[in-house]
Amino acid sequence: MAKKDASGATDSSKIWSVFSLVSALGAAAVAKKGLNASWKTATRKPPPENPADPDVQLREAVAWAVFSGAFVGLARMLAQRRAASYYARSTGRLPPGLGKDGK
């Protein structure tokens, strides 16, 4: 049986939380590099540093927000799925909260 700490969290849920966070942060960093390169290739100019800046055209700001949000979200989801798969292979069960019953 998994050991619980004073807060009631199990060791495996703590391990999964750290593992999930690290994979999501890594994916976001890699996605940002890919995103910037893709934007430069597609538009032939650097991505807007601050899309909220009134000097950035609204069309460009909206395109950047949609493109970056979708790209980073997809990268994080894929990284977390891969991390969950690794966790499941290592422990023989899905990470806490990813089962069909939410456990």
UniProtKB/TrEMBL annotation:
The chain crosses the membrane at residues 61-79. It holds the Pfam family DUF4235. Keywords: Membrane, Transmembrane, Transmembrane helix. This is DUF4235 domain-containing protein. It comes from Nocardioides plantarum.
